[in-house]
Give the backbone structure.
Amino acid sequence: MFARWGRFVYRRRWAVLVASAVLLALSVAGIITGGTLVGNGGFGATLPAGQAAKLEANELHPKQGKTKTSEITLLFSSPTMVATGADFKAALEGALAPLQSDSRVSSITTPYTVPPLDQANLISRDGHEALVIVNLNDSSPAAQRYYQTLVSKVRQGTLQVVATGQVPLNEAFNGTLEADLQRAEYVALPITLLMLVLIFAAVVAAALPLSVGLLAIVGGVGGTLFLARFTDVSQYAINVVTLIGLAVAIDYSLFVVNRFRDELAAGASREDAIAITMSTAGRAITFSGVTVAIGLSAMLFYQGTFLASMGAAGAIVVGIAVVYGLTFLPAVLAVLGPHVDRFRVPYLGRRRPEGTGAWHTMALWVMRRPVVVLVPALAVLLLAGSPFLQLRLANADVDALPPSNEARQGYDTLLRDFPGQDQTTVEAVIYYPSGSPLTSGHVGDIYDLSRRLAQLPNVLRVQSIVNVDPSYSKADYERLFGQPVAGLPPTLQQALSLTTGQHLTVLYVVTNKQYTSDEARSLVRAVRGEHIPDGQVLATGATAFDLDIVDFVLSKTPTAISAVILITYIVLFLLTGSVVLPLKAVITNLFSISASFGALVFIFQQGHLSDLLGFTPQSIDPSIPVILFSIVFGMSMDYEVLLISRIQEEYRRTGDNQSGVALGLEKSGRLITGAAAIMCAVFLAFGLAQVVIIKSIGIGLAVAILIDATVVRILIVPSVMRILGRANWWAPRPLALLHARIGAGDMRPVAQQAPSPS
């Protein structure tokens, strides 16, 4: 089938190139007309915390969904003046004067516009800083387009001002991600071109994989933005698409171009060279693309989080890379023919006779002592993966931004210097589906619940309709809320308007523990463990979302991993016709993945190399292990498919397992190493990112590919295949017949070994 496709592409090469141009045009159109990416906070509505937040919003803020607003937090400071002084006040009000008349500003809250009791929360502990909240009429995405212009209108004068809060932090994430992407491309592309020239020893041949990589990126970005028109897609998706697309497309093109050059050098015509290339390398990259897409499909099991969108985006770019590898690339090769070797680099790329070279020698050396090599190699991988046992998951926060970012610095100052800003609030939503929270019995139950919550460890206070005045008893609250609202004291009326709706009321449980801490999570669990007659006790807030996302990821992971392994096993069986090799591939890949996970915890959670890499050590975002597993499993299978395909080809030609392994490694080892080196360069370029999530993905992938291309492919694969011998290719007779009927594998017969002298 693939050979026939190769001949079709050769004979219709110009039509295929036109079709590729049409696909490129559609990709560009997708970029131009695509939807808007969203922050990760836009996901999670189906989680328990999201459902509680929706109930709360519908009853307490029914117009919130129709009118979206945003805010900027300004920190004014002076080393000499104090915020309670008249000179500081005059300077601050003068600085804010240009904003008072700006139509984009709905209100401005300063320490001098709030009641005296609230003023202390807007002045720093040392008295030299003041907090100002600027409320805007537009949503955060719209406000990000002009907030810097707005802040520039503030007259600093004798005061220093730093902007942070919702809009600046969101803009900081978007701007930093965009800068990270540009930096990665500027670093990765020239390095990749140089490495391709070293591999191919010819400029034209080296330019082809890079061209396919750029086409795949454009197609992947276009497809992702088009997808964003119909569903929420994470703002991180473009970075992941670029990372995967460039690596995979170059990887596939490398094998196609190299095989085409080999066939031409062996004397094949252009048409035959294209046909053979498609039937070997083309078939391999198709199966490889399927395995990579299967790995990425693990993220589709996490519906309700941004992971699903990233899995879909990754699958799109891999699919486009395979399409270009089977259409555009062979069509260009058909046009170029021998000219693919134009502009050769002297002294590079000299061909060695078959059965010689470092890879052949290394394979034979390993297979002469397979157990001696295998045991230490597995021990090293297990040791490298041991830090993963200390993994702690928590949602990424402002700490994901680099410490040098101004908006993050302002946020850190806010938490450090202002009273109450380092506190966490767990929102306990008391919901009565068929009644009101203000009946006498319900008020008494809510009173008792608030007192139980106040006694929990690490709780500073509970704020609710039954905590307004400490002089009121339970009976007082039951009596007061039994009368019309208009007859209540003003403080109770205000509390009702802020916390109580027709069917629910909210208790705000305040702690001084960080919102992703174990103590704060324990409070959420304690709230959800409470019961109240006729009602439900729900929990929402930042900690509840953090806990729900972590629990959701952990609950879906066994199913996702099992499904990916099972489907990959089936695909590898269809490729090889063996039930042994897929099992070996899955087990060895899990070893390499564990090693990369260990490096992830060692570097980013435990903080090793944090000064060198410029980040704040922190818990691992729950999305990162999922993303790493999905990509690494797919990429590892990518190498497995490319290597095993060549080994199987040589095994069928020679009929000798050991010779097939040695020749397969000899003919593909250099390419796999070159492809791995290029992938590592691409991934390390993303490791230069300033956003910790992208940095950790880039470095984690680079470590995984380095381990896979060295320890796994050079040492573990040949040693295991030597130990298994002909059992590598075994399958029960019914499955062997099924494989032969399906015809998905290489069906050339195994050569008969010559009889030994004995």
The first helix runs from residue 2 to 11. The radius of gyration is 31 Å. The first strand starts at residue 70 and ends at 77. Residues 104 and 699 are 42 Å apart (CA to CA).
